Amino acid sequence: MTTTERKGFLEKGQLIMIVVLLAGAALTVINQTSISPMLPVIMDELAISSPTAQWLVSGFALVMALVIPVTAYLMKRFTTRAVFFASIGLFILGCVLCFIAPNFPVLMIGRVCQAACAGMLMPLATNIMLLVFPPERRGFAMGIYSLITSLMPALGPSVAGGLADTVGWRPVYVIMLALAAALTIFAAFALKNYGESERISLDVPSVILSALGLVALLYGISSIGDEGLTPFTGGLIAVGVAIIALFTFRQTRLSEPMLNMVVFRYRRFVIGLVIVMIVMLVCMAPSVTVPLVIQQGLGESATVTGLMNIPAAVFGAITALTAGRLFDRMGGRPLAIVGSIILLVAYAGCSVMMPEYGVVWLAVCMVFSNVGMMFVNTPLNTWALGFLPDELIPHGNAMSNTLRQVCMSISTTLFVTVMAVATTASGAATPQAAVIDGARFSFICEAVLCVVVMILILTFVKPGEKAEIETKSVDPVNSKASDFMRIQVPFLTENSSIREAMTLFNNEGVTDMPVIDEKGHVIAFLSSSDIMKQLVERQIMAPDLNGWAAVVENETMHGRLAEIIDRNVMGIATKNVVTVDADDSFQDVCAILAQKRFKKVPVIQDGKLAGTINRDDVVHHIMKVLADTGM
Known about the structure:
three-stranded mixed sheet
């Protein structure tokens, strides 16, 4: 490792790549947040209700939630440039549709295209930043990301609100289109690929299940605002929950899941994720409820609505950068406690809002909300991801981004519905006063959730904990295979060719790997020796990677290589595979490796591939236990 790498500095190419990706992420945030002050104007022009209009916000977040897990597949399957330009192409298409939209459905389709772009670009940026920056600088890196994306809500809504009051809401998307075109031109010259692409499959049924489940759940919740709680709306919610449960169950049975449930084995990651999700549930609702109460309750303009976002966005951005640096020094607990207190103050203040307090009161409360959110989310998200092994960080990040987006979509749908129901039930003398009553009730509900966040932090985020991989201090004698197996391991499928196997061997730096069927069962094991045997007669060659050069230099062997290169691996792989179970003891694993003279053995759980163990893993486990116990 070089001195530059140790200090956390980046090479020029890496820096340019991160700048391009951050610019793309910033553009998507501007677009996502600019809709808020325009909602009442759009409602009047297209003649739609608030529960319908909120789909422009919650639907955006929903599509992002669906696309983010698919992005994990896209980032493995395609190059950085391919994913980037595909996402920007969707964004440009969405801008065109939003500009020409004659009705709500066309406008919604345009927002869906833009949301798909955001769902691809934002995790692409965060994943690469987490992988490029060293562990001791990840808090700073995520602070920079939060700073950029938090400043954008100050720009987008203020400009959009002013345009909506003067020339209308449609020119907003002309500006977005111009910015996207400029970024595309710059990226064409500056953006480079990071990492290698590989051939993996996407589980289409999982994508369909997640889409159906979330749409049914959110549509059921939003319909309560228009129709009340009826058998139809209740049935939709129940169906949505059932489909999401089926989706979750399916992920545990796939060798390449859309969302890797292995991350939930790490308790601290789960704790941090739950807290962050509740905070998102609380803090995203005002993006719709506050513009509604300002324009429909207080009678202010879209321009005022947009301008009131500036202080909250600026203070939130400064806090994001500060929180990232403080996390590197202090850990997550002190910052999260302070943040939860600030959040409670913010929403308790909103809940006592009166008409005479005006916009300034809400603006101050929203400043407190953004500051509190950054003090909780930025440190706790980084803290939670830090408990995952490096190979699981992309999966943990995908899970975190997906569930946060789900909470965002549920938040706006839920609290707009709560506000609509409370407004209807209000006995206020005027419609404006009824809107304010409805908003106050929704803010009270959010304040209650802030108390829940505070209790969770005080109970489960322990003093002195930092973002390090959780380890168990165990005796090797009592260890199980699951304690020291490699979880994310390369494998071949029963349809793989020898060419694909050799490519994987070369890319992964290994000389053997298991072969699985479509259900994840280990059915064979292929090594470089198996390939070598097909190339030689009456000759013995060592199964190391240095042998490949000798193979292609021999004309006879070259011909044999050409003959077998596209054959199916099942024709030469070892069929009688020796495996160990995830619950097998340390002694059992050592016995198999020693007696069979294996370098590596697959680990199965519930009959499916769960990982692998090689001799180095055994040695590393023993040394870790010795270090933990001070022996």
